[in-house]
Amino acid sequence: MTSSVHKTLASELPYPPLVHETPAMEAAVTALIDRVFGPGRFAKSSERLREGNTLLADCSFVALRDGKPVGCCRMWPVTIGGEPVAFLGPLAVDPDERSAGLGQALVESACEAARAAGWRAVLLVGDGPYFGRVGFTNGHTAGVVMPGPVDQRRVLLLPLKEARDEGLEGLVAIDPRA
Question: Is residue 8 in some structural domain?
């Protein structure tokens, strides 16, 4: 008699399971981000929006392999001209875990959580072709002003509700209500 092998969905995925980031994971997630981006990440204008800000844990995800973070996607509360939006970043994936769709899965999970939490839109600074696969565009970001120097073509927005990216313009700042 042949025994059947039962596979779980998690064992069929090409990447490890995604979980919400918890405060206990902060040091390990920060170490992952440091490995992926190096010290140059602190010079980026996006970092100004994370320093002193409060992580949106309900919209931030970590991929764990053997209990260690191998990928993360963080979200932060910011405003564009006073209007609250979620700010995505950093997205970091361990080099050994790339090319299996983990980065896109992390972004999709974070954006879906932001939608469920009632956020109007998600803002990020990143590669248009990569993030365009998830629906981000710079179509309505001409009036969005990031702090510090930034390539305006890389300022991308994903509306989470119909036409919710229209009229978003002004300075991007940490949400004072956070």
Answer: no
Write b or e for each residue in 142-153: b if 16 or more Cβ atoms lie within 10 A of its Cβ, otherwise e: eebbbeeebeee
Size of the chain in residues: 178
Domain range for 133 is 15-174
- The total of structural domains in the chain comes to 1
Chain centroid offset of residue 5 CA: 36
- Does residue 9 sit within a domain? no
Partners of 87 in beta bridges: 76, 123
Q: How far apart are alpha carbons 121 and 160 in whole angstroms?
A: 5
User: Is residue 3 in some structural domain?
Assistant: no
107 contact partners, CB below 8 Å, separation of at least 6: 73, 88, 91, 131, 134
- Assign residue 149 the CATH number of its domain: 3.40.630.30
pTM confidence score: 0.87
Confidence of residue 8 (pLDDT cuts 50, 70, 90): very low
- pLDDT, one tens digit per residue, over 98-134 is 877 899 999 999 999 999 999 999 999 999 999 999 9
Which alpha helices (DSSP H) does the chain contain, by range? 9-12, 26-37, 45-48, 102-116, 128-132
CA nearest neighbour of 90 among 152, 19, 42: 42
Q: How many CA atoms, within 13 angstroms, populate the side-chain half-sphere of residue 91?
A: 21
